[in-house]
UniProtKB/TrEMBL annotation:
Organism the protein comes from: Mycolicibacterium neworleansense
InterPro entries hit by this protein: ANTAR (IPR005561), WH-like_DNA-bd_sf (IPR036388)
Protein name per UniProt: Response regulator with putative antiterminator output domain protein
Lineage of producing organism: Bacteria, Bacillati, Actinomycetota, Actinomycetes, Mycobacteriales
MF terms in GO: RNA binding
Pfam family, any one: ANTAR
Residue ranges of every copy of the ANTAR domain listed in the record: 1-57
């Protein structure tokens, strides 16, 4: 395995970890449950876990996109993110 491939794997792993964190924060679930949710979306869509994780992180960060990955992330989590944005910070406490 080449160094550039290892770096790409590290980048995907970081995005997966961040996506898990996004779901943990939004759903109040355990990391294992968040990972299982990512896997379900991967199985439903056929999109790789690194790609769907990257799309979720971009979506959560407010980026817009036009890729199939972004569209599937929006379908899976767009409403959840919209609800989270509508809740005032003080009301969440």
């Amino acid at each position: 395995m080449s160094y550039s491939r290892l770096r790409a794997d590290d980048t995907s792993r970081i995005k997966i970890d961040v996506a898990i964190g996004v779901l943990v924060a939004l759903r109040g679930c355990a990391p294992e449950q968040a990972f299982a949710e990512l896997v379900r979306v991967v199985q439903r869509t056929g999109i790789g876990i690194g790609s769907i994780a990257r799309a979720l992180v971009d979506l959560a960060g407010g980026s817009s996109g036009s890729t199939a990955e972004y569209a599937e992330a929006f379908n899976a989590w767009g409403e959840l993110l919209a609800q989270a944005r509508r809740v005032p910070v003080n009301a969440a406490r």
